[in-house]
Amino acid sequence: MRTVDASVVVPARDEGERLERTLDSLAAQRFDGDLEVITVASGAETLRVARAHSVVDRVLADDRREGPGAARNRGAAVAGGDILLFTDADTVVPPSWVRRHYRHYATPIVVGVGGPLRPLEAGLRHRACFRLLSDWWYRACWPVGFVQQPGCNCSVRRTTFGSVGGFDDSLEFLEDTDLSLRLRREGTVAYDHTCPVDTSTRRQGRVGYARLCWTYLVGYLKYVVPGQSPTREYF
Predict the structure, then answer these.
(1) Is 210 exposed, middle or buried (0-12, 13-18, 19+ CB in 10 A)?
(2) Which of 57, 103, 124, 195 satisfies CB 3.0 to 4.6 Å to 36 for a cystine?
(3) How far is 17 from 211, CA to CA, in rounded Å?
(4) Which residues contact 180 (CB under 8 A, 6 or more apart)?
(5) pLDDT one-digit tens code per residue, 64-86
(6) Are residues 112 and 83 in contact, defined by beta-carbon separation less than 8 angstroms?
C-alpha cells in the first residue's frame, strides 16, 4: 500500500461503457496532490475496462457481488490516501472534484464531505427533480443534523472511516446515509453545494420519481424506528 494524499474508490458492477466515462473524468482531475484510483469491479467487460484504463492504480475483482457498501469497504481497505473519495461507475465528476473535497479537510474537525447530484442525461424534468431532491433536500436536512452524503459524491477522512467501521455491509439501501450519520458523531460533515457530480437517471427512469421518493421516505422511517432496518435491495 503506497501512501498518497487522496484515494478514489469506484465500485462497478456490469458497467463497462459507463465506467470508462467515469474513469476519463477522474483522469482529468486538476489536483496538485498525489491521487490514486481503485476500482472494485464485477463482470468481464467491466474488469477489462478497469484494467485497461491508465488512470486506475488497482483493480479488485468483486466476484461475490455483495453490494455497494461492501465494494466500497474493499476498496478503502487497500487505499493509501489520507482522504477517501467515493463515486459510482455511472457518474461523471468535474475536473475540480477531488480538489474541492480535499480542501475541506484543512479544517481538523471535518470528517466527511458531500455534494449535490445533477442528471447526466438531458431533460427539464430530470433537472428540476434532481435540483429539488438531490440539492435543496440536502440543504434543508443538513442544518438539522440529518446529513446524507450521496454515495457517488462523498468523501471521508480515512482515520474516521476506520474508527466508525466504514459502510455497513449488511445494508443494500441507505448505506451512505447510515455512514453519514455515524460520521456526524465524530465531527463535522460538510455539505459543499459548489461541488456537484453528474450521475445517471436510469434508476429514476425505471422506478419513477414518485415511487422513488416514497421508497426513500419509508427507508428513512425504518432507519430511525428502533428494531427496524432499511433492508430493501438496492433497486
Answers:
(1) exposed
(2) 57
(3) 28
(4) 112, 114, 147, 148, 149, 154, 189
(5) 877 889 999 999 999 999 999 99
(6) no
Is residue 174 a contact partner of residue 230, using CB atoms and an 8 Å limit?
yes
Collapse the DSSP code of 207 into the 3-class scheme (helix H, G, I; strand E, B; otherwise coil) and give the result: helix
**Count of alpha carbons within 13 angstroms of residue 139, beta-carbon side:** 12
What is the distance in angstroms between the CA of the first residue and the CA of the last residue of the chain?
34
Amino acid at 81: G
Three-class SS of 119-171: ECCCCHHHHHHHHHHHHHHHHHHHHHCCCCCCCCCEEEEHHHHHHCCCCCCCC
Instruction: Give the pLDDT confidence of 21-39 residue by residue, as tens digits.
Output: 999 999 999 999 999 999 9
Residue 199 has a CB neighbour count (10 Å cut-off) of 26
**pLDDT band of 224, cuts 50, 70, 90:** low
| Beta-bridge partner residues of 83 | 6, 157
Are β-strands 35-42 and 4-13 bridged in parallel, bridged antiparallel, or unpaired? Answer: parallel
For CA atoms 173, 141, 146, 166, the dihedral sign is: positive
d(Cα 52, Cα 47) in Å, to the nearest integer? Answer: 8
